[in-house]
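To: structure desk
From: M.T.
Subject: fold request, one chain
Message: Could you run this one when you get a chance? Sequence is below, nothing fancy, just the single chain.
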Amino acid sequence: MADPFPPSEFDEWAEAYDRDVAAEGFLFDGYERALAAVVALAEPRPDLSVLDLGTGTGNLAAHFAACGCELWCTDFSAGMLAQARLKLPAARFVLHDLRAGWPPEIDRRFDRVVSAYVFHHFPLDEKVRLVKALASERLVPGGRLVIADIAFPDPAAQAAVLRTAGAEWEEEFYWVASEALPALEQIGLKPAYRQVSACAGVFSIQ
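Reply: Done. C-alpha cells follow.
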C-alpha cells in the first residue's frame, strides 16, 4: 500500500512551509496561537530538556530555544530538518519517523515533549498508543507532554468547519476532543484540552 504521507512530499514543501502557515488558510487557522499555547503550557525555562517531535522547519522549537532550553528535534523529512537547522544551530536533530522504532540517539527522558501539527496523520487508536508511550517512557517524573494540532471540540464543530472550508478541506485523522479525551482517560492519563481557533487545539498531559 502506498505511503499516505511520504517524507518526499514534505521535503518538497520545506522551503514554502513557513509562507504557507503564515497565510493561515483552513489547515493553519490559529497556527501561531496554537504554538503560543504550547509554550505557555510547557512553561519553558533555561536548561529545561525539550523534545520536539515532528519539528518541521523549527517554528515551535524556536520558542523554546529563545528561552534557553536544551533542544532535541526530530522529523521524518530531511528537507524540513535542513530548514530547522538554519534557525536552530544549537539544537540537536534526529531524522526519525514516528511510525518507526524509537531512535537510539534519544533513548532518554525529557522534561517536556512537545509537538505541533503532526498527530493528525494518525488515526485515534495510534494517537493514543503514541501518547501513552511518550508519557510513560519519554517524560521525567513531573514532566509534561503538550500537543498542538488540527482539532475540533466535537463532531458538530468539525462538520461546521468542513462546510466552511469547502474545496480546501483535506480528509485526514483530525482530533475530535470529545472522542480523544475519553480515549486518553481510559488508558489512565489525565489530559486537558484547550481550543484556540475553529480548527486548532492543544492537549496537555502531566
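Reply (cont.): Strands lie at 49-53, 70-75, 92-95, 110-116, 139-152, 175-176, 192-197, 200-205. Let me know if you need anything else for the meeting.
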